[in-house]
Amino acid sequence: MAVATEAITVRHLSKTYATRDGAVAALERTTFSVGEGEFVAVVGPSGCGKSTLLKILAGILASSSGEALLRGTLIAGPRRDIGVVFQSPVLFPWRTVLDNVLLPVDVQRLGRQRHEQVGVDLLALVGLEGFERKYPWELSGGMQQRVAITRALVHDPAMLLMDEPFGALDAMTREHMNLELQRIWLERRKTVLFITHSIPEAVFLADRVLVMTARPGRLLDDIGVWEAVVRAFAIPIFILPPPSQVAMALYRGIASGVYLEHLQYTLLETLLGFIVGSLLGFFLGTAVAMNRWVEFFLYPYIVMFQSLPKVALAPLIVVWFGLGLTSKVINAALVAFFPLLVNTMVGLKSADEDRVSLMRSLAASDAQIFWMLRLPNALPFVMAGLDVAMIFALIGAIVAEFVGAQRGLGMLIQSMNFNMDVSGQFSIL
Fold it and tell me: Nearest-CA neighbor of 101 among 152, 142, 156?
């Protein structure tokens, strides 16, 4: 993954411990970088140097050789712009939740009054609003770990280091905390280096996964999450190809011009179907909403037809109208028709009766009530219907191409499916 700015840079980093039995190499010539705002997970067997790497980056352990930099500045000791979350919450039992959160502020003398509201806001972010005055022993393990995460964020660090923070939690709480951490990261977009033994956890949370060898720890590979899953579980290529092969298939398809040609044809079908279906849906929805007799006669048939799976009609439409453009447009229009129809009806009928009464008290005609009240009131519903209709039109066009076509992405995917070209199918998707 290419990144514009490097937050963490590690070059040839090594760490050797001196013991009574001789030197033990924990980390050996490790090199990697982490971009600003990236979430990177580090996985590897026990004793491979993951925690050693994190402690060096935190500045609480000196390296034997090599260097680690944060935003271009050498990490030579503990720094105030780094937040650390340890394997256990490490909360002070005599301090309240908010006091524990503000510990970095007190230690670094950043101004408690100025940061107190920041701490309260962060506790609300992690779902602990109302627990500010509680003590650690009054919280569950998952709640305590959320306090630890909040403490690491309160002084707005440049980098967040997490050393298996959920390793001691039960399976259900761990899954919940993974969701919480992902939500927090999406809100704050901090640079995160996350140590874990769990491949599923790394794949779920991270943009990239760094894989380390057994001791002495070396960087075995630096791969994206998708590639990590395929390699870790040895998934066959015909089931899930690695992204490297998908990228090659995409390059070949674009370079040859084949993908662009079929994409243009599918987009033309989608656009025409969207326009036709949307216009029919809007005008029929207006007629049903505004005229009781039209509603009386047509509404039962609309309900009946809406219950039919529209994509199941694609084979009949292709038989009736051929393999060309017409059948694809009709199928796309048919699928796009109902979101506009239903949303238009609901929007026009949802006009506030008091406002209708106001217009009638002003001697407004039905046309004036429609143009000045009902239609403006219905516009949000209509726009929401258009959003759905565009997606449905694309689905309708591709489904019709699956059934039978001479051109289009659906036809191309179907052709690749017959040839077991799974990489090509993924590249189109």
Answer: 152
* pTM across the whole model: 0.51
In tens, the pLDDT along 238-280 reads 777 877 677 777 777 877 888 888 889 999 999 999 999 999 9
CA distances from 86 to 55, 214, 232 (A): 10, 22, 26
Coil, helix or strand for 195? strand
CATH architecture of the domain formed by 6-238: 3-Layer(aba) Sandwich (3.40)
Say what angle helices 171-188 and 141-153 make with each other, to 10 degrees. Answer: 20
Q: Find, among 90, 95, 88, 89, the residue nearest to 135 by Cα.
A: 95
Structure tokens at 388: 């759905």
Q: Which two tokens stand for residue 283?
A: 């005008």
Burial class (CB in 10 A: 0-12, 13-18, 19+), 222: middle
Say which CATH class 252-428 falls into.
Answer: mainly alpha
**How far is it, in rounded angstroms, from Cα 258 to Cα 392?**
24
How confident is the model over 213-242, as pLDDT tens digits? 777 777 765 556 666 666 666 777 777 787
Residue with tokens 């799976």: 309
Nearest to 409 by CA among 388, 428, 382: 428
Q: What are phi and psi of 53, to 5 degrees?
A: -60, -45
